Sequence to fold (201 residues):
Amino acid sequence: MIKFNINDTEVEVEPGCTVLEAARQYEIEIPTLCYHEAVAPSGACRLCMVELKEGNWSKLVASCIYPAAEGINIYTETERVQNVRKWLFEMLLSKCPGSNEIKEMANKYGVSSTQFPIEDTDEKCMLCGLCTRICEEVVGLSAISIVDRGVHKKIGAPFLVPSDICVACGCCVTICPTGAMSSRIDSVRNAPSVTLTPVAL
Ligand code: SF4
Ligand code: SF4
Ligand code: FES
Fold:
């Protein structure tokens, strides 16, 4: 077993555990968006940042991909962590202002507005990639992916052409943390009239 400290309290976890998994085992709250236990972590959203302190130095690490290690000291609510979280929530409010899920989460952490420009007030997708990962890793298909480049990146069927690859399993809709996939899935499938059966993940 590995022993280390979270917020000055000793925790003990199996080798191979990440800091986030350890924190969840001990019911220590760390916000996440691109993490889901059903798929491999990607470290895309950075919202799960925590501070790793060692003597006189410290660094921020993404807890969903940072491995738990003997003797490390992790802090989940330092000023540095709270500042980066606030900044990330402001970025999210500007990137996907149409998402009530993001608004609610940001509000919970005390962020209700953004200093960054809003381009599309209806946008809900934060491009976290959870939908594409579940389709590939769990369903075993690659019916959706991130298409286009730069600011035009979006989730869709290959070449943005509806196809028969999608089996309408609903996993991507269930796992999407922002509500974006439910309005996008019909543009992925050749037969949008088929009812999705959302699965429990
Ligand atoms: S549709 Fe949802 S799950 Fe997919 S990338 Fe966008 S926010 Fe993430
Ligand atoms: S509904 Fe289609 S795109 Fe979504 S996970 Fe299932 S097969 Fe993939
Ligand atoms: S939850 Fe860790 S980077 Fe997104």
Remarks:
- The first strand starts at residue 2 and ends at 6.
- The chain has a mean pLDDT of 94.
